User: Fold these one by one.
Assistant:
Number 1:
Amino acid sequence: MTEKAHAPDLLLRHDSRDRVLHWLVVIAFFAAAASGLALFHPALFWLSNLLGGGPWSVILHPFVGLVMVVLFYIFARPLWQENKLEPYDRQWLSRIQDVVENRDEGLPEIGKYNAGQKLLYFVLVACMLVLLLSGLVIWRRYFAAYFPIGAVRLAAVLHAIAAFALVLGVVVHVSAAAWVKGSIRAMLVGTVTPGWAYKHHRVWFREKIRPTGGR
Amino acid sequence: MALQSLDIRRRSATTTAPPAARADASVELAKLIDVSKCIGCKACQTACMEWNDLRDEIGVNVGVYDNPPDLTDRSWTVMRFAEYENPKGDLEWLIRKDGCMHCGDPGCLKACPSPGAIVQYANGIVDFHEEHCIGCGFCIAGCPFNVPRISKKDNKAYKCTLCSDRVAVGLEPACVKTCPTGAITFGTKERMKQDAAERVTDLKSRGFANAGLYDPEGVGGTHVMYVLHHADQPALYSGLPAAPRVSPLVRLWKGAAKPLSLGLIVLAAIAGFMNYVRVGPKEVEPEDERAAQREKERIHD
């Protein structure tokens, strides 16, 4: 692994591959979301200016969306295993109120990702899949004419619902990242302090500090 | 195009009132197409081409009289010829001039995401303003009559304007002007309905018991209406829908879903921020670092 030298006791949470892919997905998401939301509600039509106006938004949105889905697939495919729900995730989830209230003492010890992150992972996977398939059906310039009008209407609704779920998921994701200090740094430079790992992801912390080292 | 002599009743992707100061003075207009008088000469198609400067691709004969075989971005009206064998065993040639129906409650306008790309004038004409069209094709999904067509050349949507430019200066649409049998007439919607009622009575006396006016309620009535000999079976006329309406999916997509999802997204963002303000960030304390160190030593020993 070609990681920048860091203080010996810091733990690598996101390697450079994951970090680069994560932020590429972010950029593609913002471009797709801006152009998509512009078409969704008139109050947000001004967002179409970010991509150069209405016609350019319509032209670019499907391509940008496709790039987002492909990048997300490359990014998220290897993370499937790490996001499998474990028994301790259910316990953690049952105490979500304590998590929200910052009563973190005595929460179940969890792995690299908490149950909220894991659920977000699967919500994103589902959204990406629906957005991809419905997006192809309503892609007027190349594909929409090949589908019956009922399918186009259904796809338009599904596209909007999946996009809504995706945006909502991202709002939660961003809020959580800003809330849990150290996590934005982890995605920017890759590392967290042992205390951070111990506090938030103790099972993962133990795997990491074992002499063999975990992911 | 923007015709300031016409007031606007509805404007696409606009949440505030459209300019309609003079709306009360505008009467609703309508085109009445009496299918029972149509001889299928296609003069209306030609007049439409001529007035609107439209020259479609020269196509090929597809084995029926329909020419071109479908509406296109440059053929805003097309005569559709249906051969119907009635229960008596006689052949009826049902010829319907297809094109935009100028719905009272236009699905294209409801679906359009571009502010002002589709307007409905106070007189009822639904007009596409191509200079504001962004080429998404949502109008196609919204239309219950399968009318809008996107140009391959400029990716803008086109359809019959009901000659809004002519109507604005007191002229009748080009197709009306040219129709040699008087099958197409134009005037106030009220007057057209009266004329239609007379014609329907006439048709009924001539053996068409189910003659009637096609002005479907489901789309708020239309500003292009048909007199049909078989008003009980509109589908005979090359698939004219019996009860057209804007699809419930489109209503959901362009109705409740919009404010609801936008509201929930904004609410979620505010809730996230307020929780941060309320309980503060999740920070790692020196005690956590010390605990981590102890744990590390325990494991390594």
Note: Chain B touches chain A through 53 residues (CB under 8 Å).
Number 2:
Amino acid sequence: MATNIESLRMPPWLKKKLPDMRAVKELNVYLKSHSIQTVCNNSRCPNMGECFEAGNVSFLILGATCTRNCLFCAISCGRPERPNPAEAESIAGAVYSLRLPYVVVTSVTRDDLADGGSAHYADVVKSIKKYSSTTIVETLIPDFDGITKNIDAIIAAGANVVSHNMETVRRLYSAVRPSFDYSRSLKILRYLSSKEAVEVKSGFMVGLGETTEERIELIRDIRNTGCGILTIGQYLRPKGSPLDVKEYVKPDEFLFLKEEASKLGFRSVASGPFVRSSYRAFEYFEERK
Amino acid sequence: MEKIILPELGEGVEEAVITTWHVTEGKTVQKGSDLVELATDKATFNVPSPVSGVIKKIMRQEGETVKVGDALAEIE
């Protein structure tokens, strides 16, 4: 089948080394046999090879079906399955067996559950900490409709880093993330920042048609909540999504955004074409210490 | 004669599109040098030559969708 090549050619800075599939396969066999999902696999992340090789895994809890239909995301939307009650123990077992020093736990959005899945999140964090007390746990949470007691449960469970992604600039929310609300997401970051016990992190994508000024405004809005950790990466279209890449943002612009963010007081900024929310999260955590 | 096979590009990634051939038939290549560039929906990859030799035949053209395991070229 012939395809329009020009539309598929990506700029040179989006070239990746062939992944080491041995590391990926090995880990996936283990995870599959324990019914554990990762956002790395479910979102077909291009960094999986290098991350798995280095022991960076982002667990996806509460199923693989989301109740919200964000156009940038590869995870399918629909009626989710019932949460797996054995999930917390399975993941904790994996973290222990694989001796992971740093893990990310994230989930689909579960508007169908009364607590948005918050108790389940808390169970997963607690179980990880029970078996691997020194493992740092980062949770990347949905907005829980802004209900703070759901966030409290996750903090109380012992999460070290709590992340909530802004994903895009204010103007593009209705097109990119229609079920989310810009102000509500900022409020969550502000609430998190009022808690001493956790580090607060957020991230967004570029290349969706936003201007540099809008990017800076978003960075400033995030910083003004008190959030100190930021990730910025290139949006890449999941197969089948109608949301096109409007721009392949040049490495220079990523550098510029990083500098601007640092000037505004972020303690840690990961900014680059292949940066994703949990990309090299452990390395950046170590850097901050 | 050895066939250049499309390697796995990621978990769940079964196919890719050939975007650029860096070599032509008859060209001598070194082991590890880039032969062909492929695009998936999330990145582009260069496939390096597994051996040193001469490209005998290019079997799949730019713009074609190829599957993991497909032969892309012959090298001798």
Note: The beta strands of chain A are 15-16, 37-38, 58-61, 102-107, 136-140, 161-163, 199-206, 229-234, 268-271.
Number 3:
Amino acid sequence: MPAPRPVQAKDGDVLVLVGTMKGAFLFRSNGARARWDVSGPHFPGHAVYAMAFDGRAGRKRLWASTTSMHWGSVLRTSDDFGATWTNPEQANVKFPADTGLALANIWQIRPGPAQEPNVLWCGVEPASLFESRDGGETWELVRGLHDHPDRPRWEPGGGGLCLHTILPDPANRERMLVAISTGGVYRTEDGGRTWRSRNLGVRADFLPDKHPEFGQCVHKVGVNPKRPGTLFLQNHWGLYRSDDFGDHWFDIANGVPSDFGFPMVVHPHDPDVAYIVPLESDAFRATPEGRLRVYRTRDGGASWEALTNGLPQEQAYETVLRDGMAADTLDPAGIYFGTRSGKLYGSADGGASWARLADGLPPVTCVKTAIVGDPRKARVPRPATAKRAKPAEKATRKAAPKAKVKAKAKGKAPVKPRRKAAARPKRAKRK
Amino acid sequence: MGIRILLPAYLRPYAGERPEVELEASPATVGGALEALRRIHPGVLDRVLTERGEVRPHVNVFVGSESIRHTGGLATPLAEGSEVSIVPAVSGG
């Protein structure tokens, strides 16, 4: 197969990085996000579960984890938007021999804070965290988490025992939160030396004890760096918010057709706005009623509205995986998601309207975004010239809670008891 | 006469594009031959063995026409002049 053409990106352009089960694809547009160039497949035949863009210290570096069913996993980079990629001779992420573990996959790549441009983390399967302090040249196992006494009791979900979420606190270098399926949420306050589970209030419906200290199957946690204490969590059954960086979680499944799903994306500018894609159940992991609906909250989870303009509402039994959704940082924000059926959708207006950007891709495993160079150079159309979007569909009334929900947009915990989502089908195997 | 190790196309970039490597020594076992190969071309072995030193689940190693899964795994003995083939399994989706 000939090498794919790279994308021709310049400052202010938007990149959407799409990992699939059989390679990676790069989508590029300008700030209007109306027309997209596509490049790929990169790494044909390799599963790409994690991608990232590192724009720190003048870099314009793409990262990808590539996993061959036969030959294992490595991290690769490109500094020319996919024209060339590194291919390390020796695997760059390895478990030390004394652990007795073997790397199965790399699920997350997370560049560190801007003030530490050589720090990166990656989350892997079996569930562990690796850190690099030299820009990704070498990686070291974070022993504090690996040696945690809970580890022997973590169980693999349907996707494997993976560490899939890495959320450093932008206000506190020593503090970080990670999420593991199934282990739950863990937090360090001392730069990774010690970790404590932080799952108070999160259910584990698949265990005899529904509220264990750890063992929850957390699917994804999202945060807006402008209010790092506020977290949104999509659980294996359950939607939650925390206002204290994970010390306590409360249910926010208010008016959604199902509280089962995988991705959780928080708006880049408004910490009260988040996006999910509910699925019918763990037994039938598809969009309910054959309608592809993104749900958005604009009040911290007190209510959710269905976003459907431009999305198929018939015979659309889609699945969006935990890293299959992302937001860009322009204003208005772009929201993107890919499906297991190989479709990529995008919205240039925060979800008010959607367009299908691609069809026929391999199953999408991850979607990430980047603004190349200086985001002030992005040419975002003014609202007057932007396409008028239909108003969002209101949440289904019959699924809405009977109890009144007090506004909690400013991070206050709700006063009502937790309510159940709409009638749930029987539980099945967790993932 | 040493041991010949035949490489699939995917692994050749990690062995100077060679389709096969001939070991000067004659290791007694398949595991010994692969360790000798690691010293010459470490990138090949990272892709054939896990960190635990096990053959990856979807990789097959043959001595002649016999899979080592049926002959003792990495402890499979080698005779002088043996031919070891590394072959990706017919798995995928």
Note: The domain at 15-399 of chain A is CATH 2.130.10.10 (Methylamine Dehydrogenase; Chain H).
